[in-house]
Specification:
Number of strands: 5
Distance between the termini: 27 Å
Order of helices and strands: HEHEEEHHEH
Helix content: 10-25%
Largest sheet: 3 strands, antiparallel
Strand content: 15-25%
Length: 146
């Protein structure tokens, strides 16, 4: 999968921009995780210490679910959005009721949802009057560089 995404991100079209992969890959840290990131996919460090399942304990965490994107440019497009924050959502206190965690895992999930927040705002570039006039016919960019 990571090779397919790397190939896709190398294409010369706007459809190859801002690729984010997320899901339950059943990839714990180790050889399978190394295969996931081997093509340049990066997972946010903000998710390293958050619980990923309703059964996680601080001494034994699982990394089955991942959110990843290309962060460094190695002849491929990279995410043009700036990461603001990331974490997991503990739904157990809200939904457990009288159920055990095991019962809840069968009714909802045993995975805590992961989330990331990106900024879509950017400072407009400083444009001189001459540059503004010269570029008035060109469409403006929807994203800005970092």
């Amino acid at each position: 999968m990571s090779s397919w995404l790397a190939d896709w991100s190398n294409r010369e079209s706007t459809w190859s921009q801002n690729l984010i992969t997320l899901g339950d890959f059943n990839v714990n840290r180790g050889p399978l995780y190394e295969a996931l990131i081997s093509t340049g996919l990066t997972t946010p460090v903000e998710l390293n210490d958050v619980p990923r399942t309703i059964f996680d304990e601080s001494s034994k965490q699982h990394f089955y679910d991942q959110i990843a994107w290309f962060q460094e440019n190695g002849n491929r497009s990279v995410l043009s959005l700036r990461l603001l924050s990331a974490s997991s959502f503990d739904f157990v206190p809200l939904l457990q009721g009288g159920l055990t965690k095991t019962q809840l895992s069968w009714k909802i999930s045993d995975h805590d949802p992961l989330w990331v927040e990106f900024s879509v705002r950017c400072r407009p570039p400083r444009i001189t009057a001459a540059a503004r006039h010269a570029s008035s016919a060109a469409p403006s960019s929807l994203c800005c560089s970092r």
